[in-house]
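2024-03-11 09:14:02 INFO queue: dequeued item Holliday junction branch migration complex subunit RuvA, len=204
2024-03-11 09:14:02 INFO validating residues
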Amino acid sequence: MIASVSGRVAHVGLDACVLEAGGLGYRVHATPGTLAGLRDGSEATLATSLVVREDSMTLFGFADAEERDVFELVQTVSGVGPRLALAMLAVHSPDDLRRAVATEDLKALTLVPGIGQKGARRIILELGDRLGPAADGSPVVPAPSTGGGAARTDVVAALTGLGWAAKQAESAVDAVLAEESSAGADTGAVLRAALQHLGGGSRG
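2024-03-11 09:14:37 INFO prediction written
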């Protein structure tokens, strides 16, 4: 694991830079914001993450370790690879991503090229509170709980967006709501339970 690279900036391109260190030139892919802070010929240090594939080794660079850690964490979500993770950090700061996930802000997440409604719901569901609190100390307010009726509508919409047929989604949500009091039912909890209920069922 190459955790960081320090050296002279040999080149700054549109999506990557070259840092010379120890007689080697490291091509490092980075966000436009990170690249904008670099100047040819200057000294720089980037926190880095090395992504190894069967046919390639790609180095990604970040202004600080926090960005790198978020980059690595969001890749644990199904369908999120390093390029999409980098795009997320190009659009949002780590704290903005934390708020978007915690408040289930689909609109904010779909601002990222390559993330649609289905992908945004999956990111919210799979990340949960794993990104942690905002680093600047500002509160991250979780999405408010809704009544059973509203929860049912929202969860059915989320499940159909994830690929299940409407009848399958409605059946799963109704089964979940029947097992617990619908009064004050939390949308996120109902969604997770419905996904577990659907299990390995085929999608429409």
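2024-03-11 09:14:37 INFO annotate: Residues 148-161 form the longest helix (14 residues).
2024-03-11 09:14:38 INFO item closed
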